[in-house]
Write a structure and sequence with these properties.
The protein is about 45% helix and about 10% strand. With about 190 residues, the chain is α/β, with parallel strands linked by helices.
Length: about 190
């Protein structure tokens, strides 16, 4: 899956770069564009006061992706010891969904928006993902992860979100994306 041209997170040109937060000896490879896109998020995360109940990420996704791509990304992050607020795990039956989402957003260092064809459809109307996205866009703590679509398609639906560079599964596997996200929030 190609992330398309233009607003891609890195593409094949430009070689590789090592961000300052990537530990020595790490096998994770970044493009210069990925380093530029992720650096503001890392700087914001570094300024946060440590809190024991704080999660590394809030995962915003379309309802239709909860058992597919969102679950796969969640599992990949968990396997790397990255703590993730994920509605499928963190919202218990009988609780108020919007209130639980609000708590999850407040307790997360950064946000991931999993941009899929299903999310693009949801954003065309009003959805819970749209509300989560509004909160995440207001901060320098947002990493879009484009999966199965392009930045061009995203730009047609959400120019504000498309203006943020991030990561793409057209250029990386979900495992590679998870490794980059894990390094991004590591102490």
């Amino acid at each position: 899956m190609s992330s398309g041209g233009g607003r891609s997170s890195g593409g094949g040109s430009g070689g590789s770069a090592r961000p300052r937060w990537s530990p020595a000896g790490s096998s994770v490879s970044y493009t210069p564009a990925e380093v530029r896109a992720l650096t503001p998020v890392r700087e914001t995360v570094e300024k946060l006061t440590p809190a024991p109940e704080r999660r590394d990420f809030f995962l915003c996704h379309a309802w239709d992706d909860r058992a597919g791509a969102a679950k796969e990304l969640y599992d990949q992050l968990q396997s790397r010891r990255v703590s993730v607020w994920f509605s499928e795990v963190d919202v218990r039956l009988g609780t108020q969904l919007l209130r639980e989402i609000d708590k999850g957003l407040a307790k997360s260092k950064a946000g991931i928006v999993l941009v899929t064809p299903a999310l693009l459809l949801r954003l065309k109307g009003e959805s819970i993902a749209d509300k989560e996205l509004s909160v995440l866009l207001a901060r320098e703590q947002l990493v879009p992860v484009v999966h199965g679509t392009t930045y061009e398609a995203l730009r047609e639906v959400s120019p504000m979100l498309a203006s943020r560079s991030g990561l793409s599964t057209g250029e990386n596997t979900i495992g590679e994306v998870a490794a980059k996200l894990g390094e991004l929030v590591a102490p």
